[in-house]
Amino acid sequence: MSVRELVVLGTASQVPTRHRNHNGYLLRWDGEGILFDPGEGTQRQMLRAGVAAHDLNRICVTHFHGDHSLGLAGVIQRINLDKVPHPVTAHYPRSGQRFFARLRYATAYRETVELTEAPVDADGQLAVTPSYTLHARKLSHPVESYGYRLVEPDGRRMLPERLAEHGIKGPDVGRIQREGVLGSVRLDDVSEVRRGQRFAFVMDTRLCDRVHALAEDCDMLVIESTFLDEDLELAVEHGHLTAGQAAGVARDAGVRHLVLTHFSQRYSEPEEFERQARAAGFEGELTVAHDLLRVPVPKRR
After folding, report:
1. Using the 8-state DSSP alphabet, how is residue 263 labeled?
2. If you count Cβ atoms within 10 Å of the first and of the last residue's Cβ in the chain, which end, N or C, has fewer?
3. Strand 146-151 relative to strand 4-10: parallel, antiparallel, unpaired?
4. E-assigned strands of the chain?
């Protein structure tokens, strides 16, 4: 049975707290695991969350500030220590290639796994698999930063009442799915398009057009909300979003489930992030993330 869920490993911004580790997010998507922004302490958080190195197929780094990347050294070495039996691909801004190299080879270890580096240097498509296409878009932050968007291919949903009308049953259902036609009956006559799911991951950025493009029609949007709305000037100065801005993006983009994360250590009341997100008019599912939380991707429409 396929599983699609977000495993939250850490939710702090620049400074971790007693209750919040640096960033780290694993997206389980069917049989694959995509690790986003492994900050310091990610390897230990994986252990606490029941995530193994074998679960990782792809690593996506948005940018090279420490709270989003210092965990790479430990994670990469753990992948090799455990002799993960499949290749792992790493995406990161090409401008930070020297940082990735330093983290990858921070200390001595034995390389046992094929780790493919696939740096990002422009908006566009990064990877195509049978279950998703991965895209990246450049964001607005003091250092080069990219957001990631995963899109499942559209499929078909068979309509039992239409099949019954045309007397199609048993093996003939599979046949019309494969061949697109059965006698005079077309696949369109007995099915409808099932829109593929969409997931976006948006970390450190000011509000910009590409944030909206990443979020458009997403079933789940994981997005930073470092500051509360009263600290908007600080957010703009440091290249971040407020809770209200993040929720406004989700509202305008038609997001179904909004996950707020990456909180400044200056705030001790997470409920205020939810209050401000609702005040911004977002009415969908809303999660204010905390460490070790598991959030299911909403079921298909």
Report:
1. B
2. N
3. unpaired
4. 4-10, 24-29, 32-36, 58-60, 88-91, 115-117, 124-128, 133-138, 146-151, 155-158, 181-182, 185-186, 191-194, 198-202, 220-224, 257-261, 285-288, 294-296
Q: Phi and psi at residue 143, in whole multiples of 5°?
A: -115, 160
Mark out the alpha helices in the chain (DSSP H runs): 42-49, 66-69, 72-81, 97-104, 160-165, 171-179, 187-190, 209-215, 232-238, 243-253, 271-279
The two three-digit tokens of residue 9, written as one number: 């490993």
Rg, Å, the chain Cα set = 21
Q: Tell me, what amino acid is at 81? A: L
30, 37, 55, 67: the catalytic one is 67
Q: At what angle do helices 271-279 and 243-253 cross, to 10 degrees?
A: 50
Q: Is 155 helix (H, G, I), strand (E, B) or coil?
A: strand
172 is catalytic: no
Residue 262 to residues 89, 222, 281, Cα–Cα distance (Å):
24, 10, 21
User: pLDDT 10s digit of each residue in the chain, 301 long?
Assistant: 479 999 999 999 999 999 999 999 999 999 999 999 999 999 999 999 999 999 999 999 999 999 999 999 999 999 999 999 999 999 999 999 999 999 999 999 999 999 999 999 999 999 999 999 999 999 999 999 999 999 999 988 899 999 999 999 999 999 999 999 999 999 999 898 899 999 999 999 999 999 999 999 999 999 999 999 999 999 999 999 999 999 999 999 999 999 999 999 999 888 999 999 999 999 999 999 999 999 999 998 8
Q: What gap in Å lies between CA 156 and CA 195, rounded to an integer?
A: 8
